[in-house]
Amino acid sequence: MKILNPILMAGKEVLPLVEGGKGISISNGESSGAWAAAGGVGTFSAVNADAYDEDGNLIPYIYHGRTRRERHEELIAYAIQGGIAQAKKAYEIAGTQGRLHMNVLWEMGGVEPILHGILDGAKGLVQGITCGAGMPYKIAEISASYGIHYYPIVSSMRAFMVLWKRAYHKFQDWLGGVVYEDPWLAGGHNGLSRAENPLEPQAPYERVRSLRQAMREVGLGHVPIIMAGGVWFLREWTNWINNPELGPIAFQFGTRPLLTQESPISDGWKKKLLTLKEGDIILNKFSPTGFYSSAVNNDFLQDLRTRSERQVAYTLEAVGEHDQVLGIGPRKRPVYLTAPDLENALKWIAKGYTEALRTPDTTLVFVTPESAHRIHEDQVNCMGCLSACAFSNWSQDEAGTTGLKADPRSFCIQKTLQSASHGGDINHELMFAGHNAYRFAQDPFYKGGFIPTVRELVERIRTGD
Predict the structure, then answer these.
(1) Helical packing angle, 29-37 and 68-94, nearest 10°
(2) How confident is the model at residue 204 (pLDDT cuts 50, 70, 90)?
(3) What domain count does the chain have?
(4) Nearest to 42 by CA among 55, 57, 31, 26
(5) At a CB cut-off of 8 Å and minimum separation 6, what does 267 contact?
(6) Is 133 helix (H, G, I), strand (E, B) or coil?
(7) What is the 3-state secondary structure (H, E, C) of 299-351?
(8) Domain range for 241
(9) How far is CA 78 from CA 24, 36, 120, 144, 379, in A?
(10) 44 and 158: one domain?
């Protein structure tokens, strides 16, 4: 194992070890503060973070607004309050040790007012902002206006150069680093482009080398690249350390910090992590963001998969092979299917999947009445947690809608992630994880169900293991 030299991040030398930000209360002030206190870069999530009352009790996200727009404003207020609370907690634990970053998703609803609200209320507590899930052009300008560094999350050299040419070159002094997130291995939402095959992963070394070459061409050879996604044992990455071809490199750990004493996830979630096997984490495209994401293949994802499998194309009039009539809805309005699709539809209906829900792609998915009620209720209760949502057809622009039919093949991401992070049944909720999560069960460090403190984990990582 090579010597792990300190790296300059946001004006301070720290260990080149970064805690990956995980949204909806998963990376919080306690975990990120502990990571920074251990000498690295701690990252708390400002994606609908938890806030507390004067007695330290959790303030639940309860919406009173009658309209989506009203609930969206409530969501923003909750998020600002929570982000400030987590920044204060992190700083209280870390003090002047390490660095503290705040993570946001550019495609989350109200990202700009949330950023301003937290940074105004937590001045001097945060040294950097990491931001991905979209093309965050304005993150540079916002960060620079507060005198803190920004760390865009990209999955390719091309994505970074688009950001650089359009916006970042104007604020290059505040570019603290570039996070390369491997789109095939990282947990949560991934940045796979249309040109990349989700089933054909590419080795990260060549992609990061091309990113470094492009950065050097515009004078950014000194700016760190943070490798994220698929990092477990540093001894597996020794050819990256002190490698002049790659320049300054740090390593981001998103999945391993889930299993620490300071991690706020439930005991049930932690126990589940210790039982995962290779292949239990899958790349899927059910998210209402439209992005691919990686999550544990539990009952929640399996329900989404089988829901989409009970799907047929339809027309409103008899056209070609679509000449078989099926009545749908309370009024049994006629739609036209092909003969094979009608046969399948009747089989699904006989099994209890009696509700045919229309999708934006002129297809029908067949679900039980209970599932149809839940889908409709979640769509109606939308609080605008995304800038645009395929599931509910919400958009935060003036129109308030994407203009498309709400998609029943997706789900309310805010609802399930809030439930998962606050004690819900993780087998029936979305459980994000990186593709290396199965290694918890194989790593001798966790033998016998051992759960380390953050400091113990950081010290373990520094040994190469």
Answers:
(1) 30
(2) very high
(3) 2
(4) 31
(5) none
(6) coil
(7) HHHHHHHHHHHCEEECECCCECCECEEEEECCCCEEEEECHHHHHHHHHHHHC
(8) 7-264+440-462
(9) 12, 25, 15, 25, 20
(10) yes
- Closest by CA position to 296, among listed 322, 315, 274: 274
Query: What burial letters (b/e) apply to 113-138, b meaning 16+ CB within 10 Å?
Result: ebbebbbeebeebbbbbbbbbbbbee
408 and 318 assigned to the same domain: yes
Task: Report phi then psi at 296, rounded to 5.
Answer: -70, 135
Instruction: Please give the structure tokens belonging to residue 170.
Output: 């104007």
**Is 434:181 a contact under the CB 8 Å cutoff?**
no
- Global pTM value: 0.93
Q: Examine residue 162 and state whether it is found in any structural domain, yes or no.
A: yes
Distance of CA 193 to the CA centre of its chain: 16
Burial class, 89, CB count within 10 angstroms (exposed 0-12 / middle 13-18 / buried 19+): buried
> Helix 139-146 to helix 111-121 angle, to the nearest 10 degrees?
10
Q: Give me 146's structure tokens.
A: 């507060």
Note the pLDDT of residue 220. Answer: 97
Q: For residues 397, 399, 400 and 403, what is the CA-based torsion angle, rounded to 10 degrees?
A: -110
Please check the confidence at residue 114 and state whether its pLDDT lies above 90: yes
Q: Which amino acid is at 286?
A: F
Tokens 């477990």: give the residue: 232
For residue range 393-431, list pLDDT tens digits in order. Answer: 999 998 899 999 999 999 999 999 999 989 899 999 999
The answer to whether position 280 is within a domain reads: no
pLDDT digits 0-9 by tens, 291-320: 888 999 999 999 999 999 999 999 999 999
| Pairwise CA distance, residues 40 & 165, whole Å | 30
Collapsed DSSP state (helix, strand, coil) of residue 409: coil
Q: Are strands 12-14 and 188-190 parallel, antiparallel or unpaired?
A: unpaired
Q: Is residue 31 a contact partner of residue 37, using CB atoms and an 8 Å limit? A: no
149 and 121: one domain? yes
Residue recorded with tokens 């992070």:
421
